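Problem statement: downstream parser choked on a complex file, so we are re-checking the raw output for the flavin mononucleotide run. The parser issue turned out to be on our end (a line-ending mismatch), but while we're here, posting the original submission so the record is complete.
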Amino acid sequence: MRTDAAYELLRQFTSPIVAVTSAWQGRTNGMILDSAVRASISPSVPRLSVYVHKWHFSHDLIWNSGKFCVHLLHRGQLELVHQLGFRSGADGDKLAGIPHRIGHIGLPVLEDRVAAFELAVINTMDTGYATLFLGHIEAVHPGKEAEILTPPWFRAHMPKAWEPEWLANYQRAQDAIEAHTQVEDRRWTGPRDS
Ligand SMILES: Cc1cc2nc3c(=O)[nH]c(=O)nc-3n(C[C@H](O)[C@H](O)[C@H](O)COP(=O)(O)O)c2cc1C
């Protein structure tokens, strides 16, 4: 993983660690993000945006279905971060064995959560290496009252044995980003057949 003084300052902009689930054509998946941002200050216009790298399995499920579910997590969920955020759903069903049910708009809603938000995509922005999805919240599922999981807390408390894999994934993502900085003229135009 590469860093410098400016990047350490940029790291202050990360939001809580969340789990994002998705579903398309009978396939479900989950990933981890620290890029979910509230995108409206009106309670009658509840919106969030997430930034998802294009090479993730979740990216295509979200792009094709036009929906995603964001879960606020608590500090007792480090193992979930390892299960969903260290390997790809393209290699196997990551949600098997993780208790969940299907929510109001057909998305997996994890049982263990501080809260879950099911969102419908309303717009996207291409960044070259990623898509920024803007979603409107269609359903809210409250959960456990507990301290939210944040990136600094995760980095300070993740088991030492995970660090080499985490750093290698980070480095691979940095390499892919640096190879795909050219913004594409590509915009989401609606869900594909689900
Ligand atoms: C703490 C943490 C934060 C992450 N933040 C992001 C993020 O903001 N955007 C992103 O695209 N991937 C992020 N990732 C990486 C994905 O969660 C990870 O690569 C995942 O395995 C992708 O799964 P998929 O291929 O099944 O979709 C993060 C991973 C971790 C552990």
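For whoever reads this later: The CA atoms of residues 114 and 145 lie 6 Å apart.
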